[in-house]
Amino acid sequence: MPIKIGSHVSMSGDLMYLGSIEEALSYDANALMVYTGAPQNTIRKKVEELKIHAAVELMKSKGLSFDDVIVHAPYIINLANPDPEKRQFAINFLSEEVKRTHAMHAKQIVLHPGSAVGGDRLQAVLWIAEGVNKVIDNTPNIPVKIALETMAGKGNEVGKTFEELKAIIDLIHDQNRVSVCFDTCHTHDAGYDIKDDFDGVIKHFDEVVGKDRISVFHINDSKNPQGAAKDRHENFGFGYLGFDALIHVVYHKDFLNIPKILETPYVEEQPPYKEEIMMIRAKTFDPMLVDHLKAKANL
Fold this sequence. Notes:
- With 299 residues, the protein is α/β, with parallel strands linked by helices.
- It is 39% helix and 15% strand.
- The radius of gyration is 18 Å and the shape is globular.
């Protein structure tokens, strides 16, 4: 079975979603992740302006599956905000993002669970679950999963531990609408031994949450040692996780059918995804990759 590998791609300008698909194809990817607009704000174009039909036709002509298109919710959504008006705003905006995800034929939207402003993590878990339930209630008959992302533990982020994700998931009324996005950098930075014992980490995840909950992986190396709780991504194979450990994740027998998304940093303003995907498919590390991209940038 061929792996499903891709990266974050942009959705902007005149081409919008069509441009996203074209960008993914330029990297020889068969999966992709997009934001429906800038992740730091709520400005969104009308669905009618996203060029969805043209994007869908291109995907069909190239044999891409809608199962492997991931939408990422904006960072500004915090379902755990203690201010009830801001919490309601987050619920309303995420509900609209779920509708846009469905309009784009995507099957899941990745969500950072939220931040425990003030430090009350138990209350944050309750508010996040309440928010997800309300979003699901606002989007009935829409088969889009909300994939809660594993977090690095920066600040008061909720979702640093598998137990916190489990606590949220247990409170969701419609279990078919919730899943998990497993981020390799985040879990490493949160203290899990992804580098030397990924199988043990997955065994623990399976015991706590259930590995069948994982619907997408973010495949990122880390600029920080295990447990740093800093969430700083590094290019594939160039960080503390390293090439072999990440290849083990990508090709793990239990997750071959799950899309893997690169969120690695640009090099000299050049996207590294075509080169990284080439390395991943060849299972061969190119220690000169960063230098190659720097040279390309200076041509």
